[in-house]
């Protein structure tokens, strides 16, 4: 069992930056791929970014590539999402996920989800 707690969301203006953090419990954190998935109001969930267990491989949605960076610190059981050059269309609830299947360029079926953190970008 893995418990995920996100933090760092908030209200910012366009082109600003935010860094989301996700603290994970459980001794097997370092064995899991991790990801971020977001959901805007009245839309389906959208993959944002993922990272493999060791942190040496990452994958991003085209909509955030070049603006967002995912990273992890296995010593602190934490995964991060650095979000730069934010746009109003990035407004969503951002969920941290753990487990699932990770390949370079793809990530699916996460096993664990956090409660989500709201990111709102004003124009």
Order of helices and strands: EEEEEEEEEEEEE
User: Which structural class is indicated by helix and strand composition?
Assistant: mainly beta
Query: What distance lies between the first and last C-alpha atoms, to the nearest angstrom?
Result: 40 Å
Spatial extent as radius of gyration: 13 Å
Low-confidence stretches: none
- Quantity of strands, as a count: 13
Q: DSSP strand (E) fraction?
A: over 45%
**What percentage of residues falls in helices of 4 or more residues?**
under 10%
Overall mean pLDDT stands at 95
The major sheet is characterized as: 7 strands, mixed
Total number of helices: 0
**How would you describe the shape?**
globular
Question: What oligomeric assembly is this protein in?
Answer: single chain
Brief digest:
Helix content is 0%, strand content 51%. By secondary structure, the chain is mainly β. Strand 4 (34-39) and strand 5 (46-51) form a beta hairpin.
Notes on the structure:
β10 (101-103) and β11 (106-108) form a beta hairpin. With 123 residues, the chain is mostly beta strands. Helices cover 0% and strands 51% of the residues. The radius of gyration is 13 Å and the shape is globular. The mean pLDDT is 95. It is built from no helices and 13 strands. Strands 2, 4, 5, 6, 9, 12 and 13 form a 7-stranded mixed sheet that branches. Strands 1-3-8-7 form a 4-stranded antiparallel sheet, with no helix packed on it. Strands 10-11 form a two-stranded antiparallel ribbon.
